[in-house]
Give the backbone structure.
Amino acid sequence: MVHRVELKSDVVLMGGVARDVGFAATLKRKLETEILIPENPEFATALGAALYALENAGGKLK
Amino acid sequence: MIVAGLDMGVQNVKVVLIKDGEILSRGIAPSGFEPEKAAEQAFHQALEKTGTALSEVTHVAVTGVGVELAPRVDSKLSVVSADAKAAVHLYPSARTVIDVGAEESRVINCSEKGTVLDFAVNERCAAGAGAFLEAMARALEVNLEDIGRLSLKATGKASISATCVIFGESDMVSLIHKQELNMRLPEQYMML
């Protein structure tokens, strides 16, 4: 799937499966690239929605 | 001002609250058969930490497969858009996002502003996604949390022919029973 789009650095891995260190290590090896993983990867999508909510409400991040 | 992002996922419902421009708290609950109740639970969890009520939340933006079941929707956005936004917020240099959830995997190319340039999705098939790992953990009788760590200890690998979760689980069970590869547990994970 990565090759259906373009592999451009930096690469971020998120979603619950990002917590699987084996999955992340295999992906890193196969893609031959460094991978950034956020602290709470399963909340990343909800965070994106929260940022959208903030934009819609006319707020800004500190 | 408090705003919320609600992700109505296949497996879990997640909430992130932002107050006065700062990420305030999070909440999570298993989607189960009543995602609406799960959303209320996740909200309760996130709001409890702040001592506020849902009615005090100015705006709720919703994403995820269960968006129609959300208890409150002020705006909607696609999961792909949400992922791109979050990735660039967390890492301004992010240009490729790989999101692997319970049943869906997505790969997204994004701009420096966090907008989506291109993406690919595996829809409605859990091959290689979280549900697959869950099924394999179940077949191998280990905790889902441990399989990644265990796979790193493998010294060799074996393969299963099916990529489908259902057939893959059946393949795995056959392998375990045959023991023909005389695998130690880590090798069994590695083949995943």
Remarks:
- Chain A touches chain B through 49 residues (CB under 8 Å).
- The CA atoms of residues 5 and 24 of chain A lie 19 Å apart.
- The first helix of chain A runs from residue 21 to 31.
- Strands of chain A lie at 11-14, 35-36.
